Amino acid sequence: MKTDIDIHNHCHFSFDLWLTLIKSHPEFKTKRVELFSSFFNVDKPIDEVAKTVKYYDDLCNTINEVTGGNIDTFEIYLMILGALNVDVKLLNKEKLNEFYVRSEELFLEYKPVIIFENIHDFFGEIKNQGKTINILSNTGFIKGKTMRKFLIHENLDQYIDFHIYSDEINCSKPNPLIFQEVKNNLKDQDLPLHQILHIGDNPVADYKGAADFGFSAHLLKH
């Protein structure tokens, strides 16, 4: 996979996370649905809960891409629970946060699978050439703070100069503001935009978003 990414003509590399570097653990989403159902006492069959979770996960991702904004994780929970006839007025932020903590524990137990082969060698090669790397990821159920914990656990954080997650700056790819944030975080503010390469799997959010902003862009196809 890495052989078709040219690291010689670029000085900075921006990577998407989901379906670019990693994918969900095969059991994680099932376990999360089970936790969702039991934690909030959802009185619906588990397959209906699973369908509802997936529907709102996909919908909110699409809304974020279309509007360039960022729907909060707790808002996604409330939409799902409302659709499952749970009385959301009885909930509060403390309860939602307690669920997030539990789901983060589950996420770190059923960790994502790294799909970008030889990633440590590839990142090491970039850094050995004196070049820089960032993560640029839209988030939904899993916040940026949790992704940071995962990347530290995988010893990948050592290669990453900075992280940008949509929940932390309240905008999502392909919004030009999120690519501007990449530019703002570079040590070399005079670096020409075309020497920044953004790599991702999404034709709109990653490829078109980066290219429209003026970055070089590489669309990964697994």
Descriptive notes:
The chain is α/β, with parallel strands linked by helices and 222 residues long. The chain has two domains: 12-22 and 114-219, 3-Layer(aba) Sandwich (Rossmann fold), CATH 3.40.50; 27-110. 48% of the residues lie in helices and 12% in strands. The protein has helices at residues 28-39, 46-67, 73-83, 93-109, 119-128, 144-153, 166-169, 176-185, 203-213; strands at 12-15, 22-23, 113-114, 132-137, 162-165, 196-200, 216-219. α2 (46-67) crosses α3. It comes from Chryseobacterium contaminans. Keywords: Hydrolase. It holds the Pfam family Hydrolase. GO terms for molecular function: hydrolase activity.
Short description:
With 222 residues, the chain is an alpha/beta fold.
- Contiguous runs where pLDDT drops below 50 for at least 5 residues: none
Biggest sheet, open or closed, and with what strands and sense?
A: 5 strands, parallel
If classified by CATH, what would the architecture of the largest domain be?
3-Layer(aba) Sandwich
Percent in strands: 5-15%
The first-level CATH class name of the largest domain: Alpha Beta
Strand order of the largest sheet: 5-4-1-6-7
CATH topology of the largest domain: Rossmann fold
- Report the oligomer: single chain
Mean pLDDT across residues: 96
CATH superfamily of the largest domain: HAD superfamily/HAD-like
Helix fraction, binned, reads: 40-55%
Radius of gyration: 18 Å
Number of helices: 9
> What is the tally of beta strands?
7
Organism: Chryseobacterium contaminans
Protein name: Phosphoglycolate phosphatase
Pfam families: Hydrolase
GO molecular function: hydrolase activity
